[in-house]
Amino acid sequence: MSHLINRRDLDFLLYELLDTTSLCERERFASHDRATFDAVIDAAETLAVEAFADHAAKLDANEPEFDGERVHIIPEVKKALEAYIEGGFLGTAFDESDGGLQLPYTVSQSVAALFSAANIGTAGYPFLTGAAANLLKVVGSEAQQQRYMRPMIAGRFFGTMCLSEPQAGSSLGDIRTRAVPDGEGGYRLKGNKMWISCGEHDLSENIVHLVLARVEGDPPGTKGISLFVVPKFRINDDGSLGPRNDVRLVGLNHKMGYRGTVNTVLSFGDNDDCRAELVGEQGKGLAGMFHMMNEARIGVGMGASVLGYSGYLHSLTYARERPQGRSPAAPDPAKPPVPIIRHADVRRMLLAQKAYAEGGLALCLYCASLVDRQATTTGDDAERDRLGLLLDILTPVAKSWPSEYGLEANKLAIQVLGGYGYTREYPVERLYRDNRLNPIHEGTYGIQAIDLLGRKVTMREGAALKLLLRQIGETAQAVSEDPELQGFAAQLADGIDLVAETTRAVADRSTDAETYLANASAYLDMLGHLVLAWIWLRQAQLARAAEPASTADADFYAGKLQATRFFFNRELPKIRHWADIVARGEDSALSMRETWF
């Protein structure tokens, strides 16, 4: 077994929990079957182990460098990406007519998970490119798709997302980058962008920057923002590369982790000649960019889950092989030490990692399945709307919960290894550093919480939350007669009531935005844990009904049941604490004065 993801678990999630093969009954995926899916996942796992994991430590120790003229990246990165592109992995979810494999997004995300677990630094380049290409598929013109999107799917061009600026991180309404019409149907851009991943390198023929800017004269705030495509090299009419565009690398940001993905400060228009094309409608750029950002948010949650998952598998192997100490019931020093997995507290840490990592992966793949089912549901507007509502309210949870608890899993992996875990001899400290970025990028935990409570919970008079709680309730009801699961069903039902009551209580403060949102992060904590309890109970339901084919299979299902027990006994009760904070409007942070710090 590799130390990326337990393949038996991935198969369980895809084919037992999510019934991914049923997507083959839909026209878009009719040419595929489980054999197709398995072949692609097998090939991805092999490449991830052999060409990505093999240089992850070297890339971390030798991060990209800028010598004033060009960025230098270790050669293993380009070699791995060439093999990735040759395998067709960049186009897994794109239409066959665009050069893709037209696989379900759920399968595409499973493939992405393997590469992220192996080496998230190298994987960042194609993943960001895929998100940029998807944005152009949704809001770009046919000419822009031909000029930029298809070369990205083919792996000739890579893509970026240029939102933040030195003075405006998440507050996009404060961006200063300006666009001026050039009188020929295009624009000239001028400004600076900060924290731009994959912003400069020699890994592809061209780099396609998707840039937020304000057309001169448009109003301030987010409603005045437009979206532009800015290539590193301009494109000639015949599709060949033209002269270098007026985009300059100012410098590199050096990060705690995720070091292999070059992170840049870019300057646009130093010579007043940065050529740009408007994407979509003027003033509607943020809406267009959200097509990329929402996909990226699910991807961030997925990456966080599998980094936690890989750390869990590494620490599990170590715990099985590392002899130390003796059982409290048999402390005789004359007896040989036992593997540390036999110590209860080590098993506690391993079981917590299992609950966090496997639960986070299941949640993110569930969200991916919602994307597939909504996109391929035809002739049933009500069902499409239902799937869209679930995806809307779960996206901030899927981005944030795994980012917090995948990182917690990595922390516990280090603890299992003890002093060795804190050294570079083992990968768990690197996995922790890589994962520490995930609670920050694509919207911090606090921003996701504000989005959840301030927008998703209240939209359409609470329709999305009501639907989600109803879905969770149906699972609780379905297992309420199972003697092994009925206690968990009752706990879940109580949690549903608690979330509903807490939401009604906090709604009374909704007219005062500052007070209403002061404890949004506690609300996200509460709802996130309820959702993960639901995800685990759904897995337990299947485990109870399963007919194991072998002893190993029986152990697998027993592990699912025990992880469910752990989550309900140790994690779900925490929601009462968070609910109390939200319901009573605990205001120690809000009322704290700056001078008191």
Q: Helix and strand layout, with pairings?
A:
Elements: H1 7-17, H2 34-52, H3 56-61, E1 65-66, E2 71-72, H4 75-86, H5 105-139, H6 142-153, E3 157-162, E4 178-181, E5 187-197, E6 206-215, E7 225-231, E8 233-235, E9 241-244, E10 247-252, E11 263-268, E12 274-279, H7 285-321, H8 344-375, H9 381-417, H10 428-435, H11 445-456, H12 463-478, H13 486-507, H14 513-517, H15 520-545, H16 551-571, H17 575-583
Parallel strand pairs: 3-6, 4-6
Antiparallel strand pairs: 1-2, 4-5, 5-11, 5-12, 6-7, 7-12, 8-9, 10-11
Helix pairs in contact: 2-4, 2-5, 5-6, 5-7, 5-8, 7-8, 7-9, 7-10, 8-9, 8-15, 8-16, 9-10, 9-11, 9-12, 9-15, 11-15, 12-13, 13-15, 13-17, 15-16, 15-17
Describe the protein.
- Helix content is 54%, strand content 11%.
- The chain contains 17 helices and 12 strands.
- It has helices spanning 7-17, 34-52, 56-61, 75-86, 105-139, 142-153, 285-321, 344-375, 381-417, 428-435, 445-456, 463-478, 486-507, 513-517, 520-545, 551-571, 575-583; strands at residues 65-66, 71-72, 157-162, 178-181, 187-197, 206-215, 225-231, 233-235, 241-244, 247-252, 263-268, 274-279.
- The strands form 3 sheets. The chain has a 5-stranded mixed β-barrel with strand order 4-5-12-7-6. Strands 1-2 form a two-stranded antiparallel sheet. Strands 8-9 form a two-stranded antiparallel sheet.
- Helix 2 (34-52) runs antiparallel to helix 4 (75-86) and helix 5 runs antiparallel to helix 6 (142-153).
- The N and C termini lie far apart (51 Å).
- The model has no long low-confidence stretch (mean pLDDT 95).
